[in-house]
Amino acid sequence: MRPEQHRLVDDGTKQAARLKVGFVLSRSFTLSAFALFVDTLRLASDEQDRSGRVLADWQVIGSTRHLITSSCGVQVAPTSDFVDPARFDYIAVVGGLLSVENPVDQQTITFLKQADAKKVPLIGVCTGTFILAAAGLMKRHESCVSWLHYKEFRERFPELAVRSDRLFNLDRQRGSCAGGSSSADMAALLVRKYISRDAERNALEVLQIEKARTPSDIQPRRPLYDDYDDARVKAAMITMEQFVDGSMPIEKLAAMVGLSRRQLERIFIEKTGMSPAKAYNRVRMERAKSILAQSKAPLIEIALDVGFENASQFTRTFKRTFGQTPSQHRAAALRAH
């Protein structure tokens, strides 16, 4: 940390530090992740809900002042050109859709590298960690990403340490979070460290958040195997999730938990009411359902990810499982947001 960041206020009795955060928004960034982070700062910066920049300040910085379109279509205008990155205590890169080929321009990458050279801590918000990793800025740091993006991060950056079990991570000069409401949790931690606990409490109360979660809290994903209390069933279903493309033969799956195929099938029927093959199919369909709701990936790409040879076969199986086509599910998810 840089010298000015040692002005920590843990009990509210010392002179409050002014926390300055610069936001870099990618093309098709996630609006909710950005809004929750910046609103936590806004509400912590002043008493009640007056929005004064008393204890914190923030800017949306960019290579141009052109509007940046979020993944939901709402546009945000940068409020500052790229300035000396040392003016900020943190620079947060807010990512979005992974299907965007060039989420930021080369000037932005240069700016982030300048910030790194000046020891300004960088934070990847949502898939912003992918942008930092692609720029070579996550070496020797552990990344935290959503469970939904874990596989793709591993494929893109096999040499980097990554985890998808926690909400967010602060690793020396880097921060990263899964996105969504975890953005508010990470911002609340910064507020508590650099402003005060009272400021954090004020922000969370106005946001109707009962309590900020910590870096050790688990991502709120409820896997299918949580419904069952048999250790062998859980182990088998965890393995199914790890091989969501359907490439794990049932015989090998049974051997991995110390059973024959017939024994595994008998236990699955007894404990889950379905065969291992049907459970495996359900795991794959649940993963496809999540991807459909949270990305704009084409159907064929999702079909291949979960082990189908073509989109029509995938569509038939999806409709048989959930009673609607993948396109209908995606449209309903968009309306809900």
From TrEMBL:
Organism superkingdom: Bacteria
Key words of the record: DNA-binding, Transcription, Transcription regulation
Residues annotated as domain HTH araC/xylS-type: 234-332
Gene3D superfamilies: 3.40.50.880, Homeodomain-like (1.10.10.60)
Single GO molecular function: DNA-binding transcription factor activity
PANTHER family listed in its UniProt record: ARAC-FAMILY TRANSCRIPTIONAL REGULATOR, HTH-TYPE TRANSCRIPTIONAL REGULATOR RV1931C
The protein, known as: AraC family transcriptional regulator
